[in-house]
Design goal:
The protein has 701 residues and is an all-alpha fold. The chain has 30 helices and 6 strands.
Length: 701
């Protein structure tokens, strides 16, 4: 039984070890995958923002008593759709139909009247029955009898009366819907005429037969006016502030209360699937834009997985800052932290992109709130401008003050537009001031951790590294003064060439200062530190001298890591000799024992320079040593030596892995020659003043 338990325990431990190994290998590979970086960002943003689309826990309906105070979780402005629609429908109803007058109706009526009376006047009939048959309109017997009994002058007068009545009615306009008013209009027109009653009655009867609608509905124009009236009604908007009490405990819930709750999403009874899908699409699209921008315009960041992680972390920090500080006040969000960190650590162009997406994405479910963000965006842009070329950490404090000032002005302007309350304006401006100061504090606090974690050499860090109060540089200055002066000269030479090629000048100078730091371990074995004294290598065999010379590279790497010097600077230590030959001791060894000397033993282990900056420092180091050894250097000698050294390094393959072109090498040679001619220019040989003075005195005596 005990054996079985032990076996189970051993197997369990074995499974745990295998699982631990699998997870460690998986995460090791995952951290090195760019896709994993952006999947993490997507999941983090989705996980935080999806809560805006989930159902609320508030379960309340109209007519209930509110069990507790219900408070708005955010500031927003919403449209009362129901009330807006009511007002728009009312506006549509108030629009009168547009009718068009058809003048042809009156002309047709006049033609019909003329034809009727012409027929009546020309009729040669003996009784009213015959007359009824020939008239163009069907009339009652009583009307026909009345017409049959009229004299010619009465018919003439009747004709004029009918024309007047019909024309008067048609001029008022008759629509199909107003035909029921025709009798009333005819009576009104006829009553104004001075004619006998019997003729008036006949005229009224006849007029009805000639009047037809002459007003017709213009559907298109009517609809246009209705739409115009509808669109002229502005949406009914309500504004709710964060922290505002929507319903107090004990109040009866009304329809108006429910409008506020619905707008805030507090009564949503089911998951908003479409909203979640839309959220995911917006986050994914934003990530694609960021990645494509980096790939197209900042490929060095795109190709570095660690810097992709830094971009991701800044985006996540942005989400945390926006969501966290917006609980207090939008104007207190230290959004400029992102712009300043990204500008110093990455690239000012990328900082703008990070800034925009970090401000917009957290508010995608509440876009109305974005109108409060312009002061924060403007202040953050000021942060980009204020930190673009900084070289000292104290500059970050000044940048924070500029951000604060810009945001105070911006928030004041926005507050004047949206608030009439002076107290609110002042409070918002205080928040904006705090946001700028807090941005500076967060930037100063976070930057050293990011510099160390991602091995980023910022201009600030480079400025600190070349300060001679740095312990390692102080050791170089005190323990190897010759190497110290040599490093200063290399810095001047390399920086001159780097400026001509558009290289990273602070990095070149820092690399120049540290490239020979390994000589601190054995300073007097190097000629520049012997100060004209005995050369210790004269007493050593070439094989031992070789080991001492080659070892200064490894010693430099060890010292640099001991003093926590960044890897980018250590690259200068490793690469400043490449795999070149220690030619002096190699040839000395050949003379002593030509059969047992192997060339590879007298070469540095490398690697060869892999960047423009390390290649420039390697050439500057070789050129300075060669020119310093010249006796009576002239401009021509200096130029020949410089070009000869560069050609020798090129032919030896030391520049094979660097991005330098032949044109670049020519520019470097010209820069070196210019600086070296200034250093080794001919000097006037001053006379011995004391000797001249004694001669003058003797002559005077």
């Amino acid at each position: 039984m005990n054996l079985t338990v032990e076996q189970i325990g051993d197997r369990l431990i074995s499974y745990i070890k295998n699982l631990d190994l699998f997870l460690s290998q998986f995460f090791s590979r995952a951290v090195k995958s760019r896709e994993i970086v952006w999947i993490v960002v997507f999941l983090f943003y989705s996980g935080v923002l999806v809560s805006d689309f989930l159902p609320s826990s508030i379960n309340i309906s109209i007519g209930q008593v509110a069990p507790t105070d219900i408070i708005s979780p955010r500031t927003m402005e919403f449209i009362d759709v129901e009330r807006t629609e009511q007002l728009r429908e009312q506006a549509v109803k108030e629009v009168k139909p547009v009718y068009e007058l058809d003048t042809m109706v009156e002309l047709q009526a006049m033609d019909d009247i003329t034809r009727f009376f012409n027929t009546l006047e020309r009729a040669q009939v003996k009784n009213f029955s015959d007359l009824k048959k020939i008239l163009p309109i069907k009339l009652t017997d009583s009307t026909v009898k009345a017409l049959f009994s009229l004299r010619r002058d009465q018919i003439y007068k009747l004709r004029g009366t009918v024309v007047q009545i019909v024309r008067g009615v048609l001029n008022k306009g008759i629509s199909p819907q107003s035909l029921n008013l025709v009798d009333q209009l005819i009576q009104s027109e006829s009553s104004a005429l001075d004619i006998p009653q019997d003729l008036r009655d006949i005229a009224v009867t006849l007029s009805k037969y000639f009047i037809r609608p002459n007003l017709f509905l213009n559907v298109e124009e009517t609809l246009r006016r209705q739409n115009e009236a509808k669109n002229s009604v502005q949406p009914v908007k309500y504004k709710v502030l964060k922290g505002q009490v929507i319903i107090r405990r004990g109040d009866i819930v009304t329809r108006e209360h429910m409008k506020y709750l619905d707008a805030l999403g507090l009564t949503r009874g089911q998951v908003n699937i479409l909203g979640i899908i839309g959220l995911g699409m917006i986050i994914l699209l934003s990530e694609l834009i960021i990645v494509e921008f980096i790939k197209s315009y900042i490929p060095n960041i795109y190709n570095s997985i660690s810097l992709n992680w830094l971009v991701a972390i800044l985006l996540i920090i942005g989400l945390i800052l926006v969501k966290g500080f917006s609980l207090l006040s939008i104007y207190l969000i230290p959004l400029a932290t992102l712009s300043m960190l990204a500008t110093v650590l990455l690239d000012y162009r990328l900082s703008i992109l990070i800034l925009v997406f970090s401000g917009i994405l957290p508010n995608v479910s509440n876009p109305d709130i974005l109108r409060f963000y312009p002061p924060l965006f403007i202040g953050s842009m000021m942060g980009v401008l204020a930190t673009k070329d900084i070289t000292q950490r104290s500059d970050l404090t000044r940048a924070g003050l500029w951000v604060a000032l810009t945001q105070v002005i911006g928030v004041g302007a926005i507050s004047l537009i949206g608030y009439g309350d002076l107290r609110s304006i002042i409070l918002n401006m205080i928040y904006a001031l705090g946001s700028g100061v807090l941005s500076s504090i967060l930037t100063i606090g976070l930057m050293p951790y990011f510099e160390h974690l991602f091995q980023i050499l910022t201009p600030i860090r480079l400025t600190e590294l070349i300060n001679f109060s740095q312990p390692l540089l102080k050791r170089l200055m005190l323990e190897a003064p010759g190497t110290y002066h040599h490093s200063i000269l290399i810095g001047n030479l390399a920086e001159s060439a780097g400026e001509a090629l558009g290289a990273n000048l602070p990095l070149i100078r820092a690399g120049s200062y540290y490239h020979d730091i390994g000589k601190v371990r054995r300073p007097y074995f190097f000629i520049e530190n012997q100060l004209g004294g005995e050369n210790l290598h004269d007493k050593l065999p070439p094989s031992l001298s070789r080991l001492i010379i080659l070892q200064h590279v490894d010693d430099g790497v060890m010292l640099a890591r001991q003093y926590k010097i960044p890897e980018q600077i250590i690259d200068f230590i490793r690469e400043h000799h490449g795999t070149s030959l220690v030619s002096y001791f190699y040839h000395k060894a050949l003379k002593e024992n030509p059969n047992s000397v192997r060339e590879e033993e007298y070469r540095y282990r490398g690697p060869k320079p892999r960047s423009k900056e390390t290649a420039i420092v390697m050439l500057a180091d070789a050129v300075e040593a060669a020119v310093r050894s010249l006796e009576h250097p002239t401009p021509q000698k200096i130029e020949d030596t410089v070009r000869g050294i560069i050609e020798e390094r090129l032919n030896d393959g030391q520049l094979d892995e660097s991005p330098l072109t032949l044109r670049d090498l020519n520019v470097i040679a010209e820069s070196f020659v210019k600086v070296l001619n200034g250093l080794f220019h001919p000097r006037i040989e001053y006379p011995d003043l004391q000797k001249e003075a004694k001669t003058f005195v003797n002559r005077s005596i």
